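Handout, section B. The chain below has 223 residues.
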Amino acid sequence: MQALQSRLRHRFADPALLARALTHRSFSADHNERLEFLGDSVLGLAVAHMLYEALGQLPEGDLSRVRAQLVRQDSLHRLALDLGLPALLRLGEGELRSGGQSRPSILADALEAVIGAVYLDAGFDAASALVRRLFDTIHISPAMSAAAKDSKTALQEWLQGRKMQLPQYQVARVLGAAHRQTFEVTCTVVERGLARAGQGASRRAAEQAAAASMLQALQSTSP
């Protein structure tokens, strides 16, 4: 815990906050979900402020896409790994046996809880400074707005730019047990006679995967 505070570059006046931030609900009733809720909002505001300063000429929609890219689960998971959070998480025996220490969702939630803990311990300025340090290796530029577009949006804009109809999405099948379902969605572009499938843990994720596959197919066949 001392080493983590050094990596965070924040020394807690109330170390119990940090301990709670690293406690999963499977371990104790005094867990990190409330801190995660708080940290999610603090993170969103801190990143929004950072982007407002760095990308002041971008419109709101582009700023929102870049922010969503930075605060998504995959990004927070990588940051949690860099901080060494897996070894410090307090998990119940069941979560430990099922690999909870390496689960992206648990690690991303723990990082948000840590940010919430810093906010309660020392205020928004300290939490915002931590967020900036976490993201200081990422070069923020206007080009990120295009890269941050989700696949469905990118596909829609590609089609609209060529005055073509919007794609059609249909759930082809749902696999697995109710608590661990995998959705398979088909994306169809009628005017090109193309259909591509995608899978994901939710219908939305499957649609994004299908859209990405379709966009790749269209770009590879267009001059």
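Note. The chain is about 55% helix and 10% strand. Compare this with the example in section A.
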